[in-house]
Amino acid sequence: MDSVSGNGSGDFPPETSASVLKDRRTDALGDLRVLPDEILCTILTRLTPRDVARLSCASSVMYILCNEEPLWMSLCLSIVNRQLEYKGSWKKTALHQLDVLDMYTEACKRTLQFDGFNSLFLYRRLYRCYTSLNGFSFDDGNVERRENISLEEFRKDYDGQKPVLIDGLTDKWPARKSWTSEQLALKYSDTKFRISQRSSKKVNMKFKDYISYIQIQHDEDPLYIFDDKFAEAAPDLLKDYSVPYLFQEDYFDVLDIDQRPPFRWLIIGPERSGASWHVDPGLTSAWNTLLSGRKRWALYPPGRVPLGVTVHVNEDDGDVNIETPSSLQWWLDFYPLLADHDKPIECTQLPGETIYVPSGWWHCVLNLETTIAVTQNFVNSKNFEYVCLDMAPGFHHKGICRAGLLALDDGGFEHIEKNSLSHENSSNYSDHTRKEKRVRTCQSVENTDNGNCTDMSSCDSLGDLEYSYDVNFLAMFLDNERDHYSSLWSSGNCIGQREFRDWLWKLWVGRPGIRDLIWKGACLALNAGKWYERVKEICAFYDFPSPPQDEKLPVGTGSNPVYLMDDCVTKIFVEGGLEASLYGLGTELEFHHLLNNSTSSLKNYIPSVLASGILVFENGSYRVIPWDGRGIPEVIASSNLITPLHKEVDYPFGVWGKKQFEYQIAGTPSHESANCGKSSSMWPYIVTKRCRGKIFAELRDNLSSKDALNLASFLGEQLHNLHLLPVPSPSPNHSIPMVIGDCTESLQGNGFSKNTDNPAESELFVRILNRRRSNVTKRLSEWGDPIPSKLIEKVNEYIPDDLSVFFDIFKNETEVCRSLTWIHSDVMDDNIYMTENNISDSCMEENMRVTRPDISNGQEHSWHPSHILDFSDLTLGEPILDLIPIHLDVFRGDSRLLKQFLDSYKIPFLRKESLKDEAQGNRSDQLSYRIMCYCILYDENVLGAIFSLWKELRTATTWEEVEEKVWGDLNNYAGFS
């Protein structure tokens, strides 16, 4: 790394006299001279520090470019692998991160100087690093200022309408006096806070190190404490402030603190730092209170993209990405270009003042000196529908909400007309072919012609259509060709689909007074109105009562709409698209048939099937077609939409076909994005008997320790019964995965088989896992926080290169022995029903929607588990897979409950021969290692659940640490000792 500094020798061009100055750039860069400095500097940020160090020796101009502090800041933040501590320069800080700082010595004692080279780009950047903002205060701003404002005035004049700067809301806050750099440094010197910067890595700094940094730094875009987890790092800070009375209506407060999306931030930053142009996530509103320093704000109303900002709308997932200059760069380079009528709404915020930013408003903040502030985002009655709208899948409406009519392409009008007249008469899917569209852009100042940029009000080919930030107007741009309930949501959504449905449900139960508003939001995000129409058609066909008005919202958090009627429950299959839905229903019906013809007591704990079939929309009306899972329904056979993998078997859409379907789509996420959201005109459904009582999710926090242990025993017993239930015999033409397991005589005939004809059948399951393994690093990186980046880097070292080591078939001279069991795969807290002990039948009729158990006369009621629900995710596989959702979701990692479960389960998870291999050091047969690998390869982000339950594991440096903490108890399981 010594070569970073250069020494003036080598192939550096000789220096020339001042009288014969020559452009050094041409000789020093060779063919690269055709690239502007901005492009060259961008390319350098993609290199490793070592490559930049080597390149700095190539020529004098490369030496200049490769020793820029902004470059080394970017390089350092991209390689952070330890606690960040600024070492006086970003190059030294980067070398410290690489453990080579002590070896680094300057080859020359002075910085090399070269004449004959000029760069306006580098000069502008250097100027921004050292400029002072003393003259940036804007005292005559045009944001309205108020004090002593009443809640009624705020709601009438500002809430959801326009920004306002309010004084006097924080007069009684302790933070007004205690939140200074000096006092915070005394109390939180060694506390680590999250840093906001343009890097994919999460960076933390001790507060004392951050204070040291801001006192000596000269960065264009300085590091900025922007910590949404500050309450965990320093919980006493929550005592120093309270939510102002104007903003206390927050619909997210029905969620537990660890369930709601990030909503509050501690913000500390030096002069020149700030937040570049953005719209707050999820179209939430926000309040921001300044405790120390001064901030300059600029705001534009929804749909009006600021000059210099580029909005990208991604077709694949509807995500909206923003390209924006830094806050300081925008004020220096773009603001002066604006005509008076194009300038933003502005103000300078002073200590003690609170600014309100409504939903959808663009805003940019520049710190004029070191500032300390707190901010919170919230959802209330004024923006609830906008938040729900922003959750809906598709891309048109997301771009329109942020970029206005500039987000429309040439087919904008046709899209509006199509959506306005859309109805459920088509199973086709409009395949929008654009991959990424730049909907709003302005060249940088260096490349503009006379400073002229696109007029912000331009909307070519859009006639007289006027943009309106009105939910009815914006809803016209929803992609109604997608089934919103089943489509993948944007990765940029502030909350996931499961969490969103849980949120709506808790609002529906907890705040019945706003159900009309909740219903409007559910219709925007989930097409709830259409699903309600469909379930009523199914009920009418069977003469079942329709869900009443107060139960028209689908229940649960699953990916299929579920409705409660008087004595039955109707589920409409939509997850994964029509083909996946048919295999889901077909497998569940096949399972019920086998269960009802067995002697297993499991049947007593699973709701019986009352009806099943396919709902079809054709020629403007619905038609119900009953189907018991056998054969191929005529409507499917005649549609040519789906060809069953095996037509000749009794259950062509049963578990063997489903397993092959899983193989076809394994490791191909593009399948989901291409097909799951396709609008369908057919929906499989099932009607089961309604269980009385409450779901475990509603009782969890109120169950006694004894009841929790009884639940663990119940699950162990029923999973024992499930895993010993005989599986259907495959057709000779089926090629399906056989999963290794115990081969003892006592278990034969209960899901275990001997087969000498096709030992290669297990390869299919191995291929499924290997496909998932092939892109595991990419998938984990996309999931990101809270999965530690260090572990993501090591995941390929931890998982076997070939997953077949988990399924080495045990052979002897005459036979191949394999285990094969039913797997529920989704035993979670909302799929377990519980009944109150010692109560009358009339009490058992109590509506399940009550969210807490009744407590009367100071006595807690006792509950026992009664049913396991939702078998649409049934498959065949290794029994240990069912432990993942049970331990993580139901038991929440409680080892005591896991032990109780295992004591009741009483079946070995591994064949006895595996113990011999383990004794010889074969890790693939160690139960904790095997299930940890399955967690990593799981289709859903169970790792996120692990690192949320065991927060201490976020600092783990090896997967072995995680394995031992989460699953180590399995290695002592007596079932295979």
UniProtKB/TrEMBL annotation:
Keywords: Iron, Metal-binding, Nucleus, Oxidoreductase. GO terms for molecular function: metal ion binding; oxidoreductase activity. The keyword Transport does not apply. Its cofactor is Fe(2+). Residues 232-395 form the JmjC domain. SUPFAM superfamilies: Clavaminate synthase-like, F-box domain, Protein kinase-like (PK-like). Its main location: nucleus. Gene3D superfamilies: 1.20.1280.50, Cupin. Residues 29-75 form the F-box domain. One of its GO terms (cellular component) is nucleus. It is found in: Nucleus. The keyword Metal-binding applies. InterPro entries: Cupin_8, F-box-like_dom_sf, F-box_dom, JmjC_dom, JMJD6_ArgDemeth/LysHydrox, Kinase-like_dom_sf. Belongs to the JARID1 histone demethylase family. This is JmjC domain-containing protein. The lineage of its organism: Eukaryota, Viridiplantae, Streptophyta, Embryophyta, Tracheophyta.
